[in-house]
Amino acid sequence: MIKRFVVKKYEQAALLKDGDFVRLLSAGRHYFWDPMNRLSVQVWRIDTALTDVELGEYLRAREPRLVESCFEIMDLSEDEAGLRYENDVLVEILPPGTRRMIWKGVLAHRLEKVDLRQTVALPAALTMRLTQPGLRGRPVAGLGAVLLAQVPAYHVGIVRMDGRMERMLNPGIEAYWRFNREISVELVDTRLQNMEVSGQEILTRDKVALRINLGVTWRYADVLLACEKLAKPVEHLYRELQFGLRAAVGTRSLDELLENKRVIDEVVSEYAVTRLAGFGIEIRSLGVKDIVLPGEMRTILAQVVEAEKAAQANVIRRREETSATRSLLNTARVMEDNPTALRLKELETLERVAERIDRISVFGGLDQVLNGLVTLKGN
Q1: N- to C-terminal Cα separation, the chain
Q2: What's CA 339's distance to the chain center, in Å?
Q3: How far, in Å, CA of 250 to CA of 208, rounded?
Q4: Axis crossing angle, helix 339-354 with helix 365-378, rounded to the nearest 10
Q5: What are phi and psi of 354, to 5 degrees?
Q6: What ranges in 174-232 are assigned the alpha helix state H?
Q7: 48, 102 contact by CB (below 8 A)
Q8: Which residue spans within 221-304 are E strands per DSSP?
Q9: Which of 39, 75, 238, 327 could be disulfide-bonded to 34 (CB atoms 3.0-4.6 Å)?
Q10: Distance, CA of 326 to CA of 318 (rounded, Å)
Q11: Backbone angles phi, psi at 11, to 5 degrees
Q12: Over the range 279-293, which residues count as b (16 or more CB within 10 Å of their CB) and which as e?
């Protein structure tokens, strides 16, 4: 029985007998006598890696000349990473311990080794090639081996390696090898930030429960210092503000707090500044947004305010009545000693009466009218 195998020009093939390697086949038609049907062919595309690991190890050990003539060898130690190029274009990042055999063909293959013991960060030129892989004509395989750290404006980046804080990054883009280490970058905003300390229920000195909402504006004064001394700086700041509120409210009565709300701001601010000194955190402004009283306490205070306002209104009303009476008394004394003033007052009264009447008939002269008016008032 004659078997025919066709190897195309863009393929590489190996002849197998009972699944075992016999020899390589070049491009073209190949005919073999195989009465027992024991022959087969394994085909690979040209310029790809030899995927049969066992065959590759056999060829390395038993056919070194064949390996040298047909394959590009790309081997890496446990402390090396590899950058694989095709026609001087980066196409793949190889991990440590790689043993790769790539068929020689029309492409020029090149391996660039990186010593991971000496190199942590990628060069700037290489980093920029990896920032936009989707825009490349051919994506780079193995990009998961690289940590791309993009630090936006007004931020800094804290590099942590194997649990240790290594350095601080300024705004920009940097890349680090992930191989053989645990590495991460934490972004920290250096601008002013707002914090709400809300819903803190605190008992005053006279045992009244208040719910206080506090607003704070803060920033990092020293990022490295804050991250070195505090595991979670924001949580630490929040907790110290809570303690400051308790110190300000718990030592004062409700009346004191309602009469002067600024005392809370002053006490909490002084407390927080003292407690946060040396931790790289700076408080720019602090203030109580509102004080919420219990329902029954609000009712009682509303009644107190209503009673106070009613008393104030009554005092004002009595003061005005006293003032009006005193004015009338002074007027009467002037008229008693001055007939002319009395006469003018009579004329003023007559004028007001005349404004309400369309027509007046006068008999006996103006004196008679005035005398009659006075008589009517006396009756």
Answers
A1: 154
A2: 86
A3: 10
A4: 90
A5: -65, -30
A6: 223-229
A7: yes
A8: 281-292
A9: 39
A10: 12
A11: -125, 160
A12: bbbebeebebeeeeb
233-250 and 262-276 helices, crossing angle to 10°: 140
Q: Is 217:285 a contact under the CB 8 Å cutoff?
A: yes
Residue with tokens 């309602």: 258
**Dist. CA 276–CA 274, nearest whole Å:** 6
Q: How far is CA 111 from CA 72, 137, 325, 350, in A?
A: 9, 20, 111, 120
Q: What are phi and psi of 48, to 5 degrees?
A: -110, 170
Q: Quick one: tokens of 226?
A: 């804050």
Amino acid identity at 170: N
Task: Show the tokens assigned to 51.
Answer: 């995927």
Tabulate helix, strand, coil % of the chain (nearest 5): 40, 35, 25
3-class DSSP state for residue 171? coil
Asked if 146 and 122 count as a contact pair (C-beta separation under 8 A), the reply is yes
Angle, CA 336 vertex, CA 331 and CA 341 arms, to 5°: 65
The single-letter code of the amino acid at 30 is H
pLDDT, one tens digit for every residue, the chain (379 residues): 788 889 898 888 888 888 888 888 888 998 888 888 899 998 888 888 888 888 888 889 988 998 998 899 999 999 999 999 999 999 999 999 999 999 888 889 999 999 999 989 999 999 988 888 777 888 899 999 999 999 999 999 999 998 888 889 999 999 999 999 999 999 999 999 999 887 667 777 777 777 788 889 999 999 988 988 888 899 999 999 888 888 888 777 777 777 777 888 888 888 888 999 989 999 998 888 877 776 555 555 555 556 666 667 677 777 777 777 777 677 777 666 777 666 666 667 666 666 666 665 655 555 555 565 555 444 4
Q: Report how far residue 309's alpha carbon sits from residue 303's, in angstroms, rounded to the nearest whole number.
A: 10
* Integer Cα distance of 206 and 287 in angstroms: 23
CA angle 281, 285, 287 (to 5 degrees): 125
Backbone angles phi, psi at 192, to 5 degrees: -65, 135
Asked whether the beta carbons of 211 and 219 are under 8 A apart, the reply is no
pLDDT given at position 351: 67
Q: Specify the 3-state DSSP secondary structure of 100.
A: strand
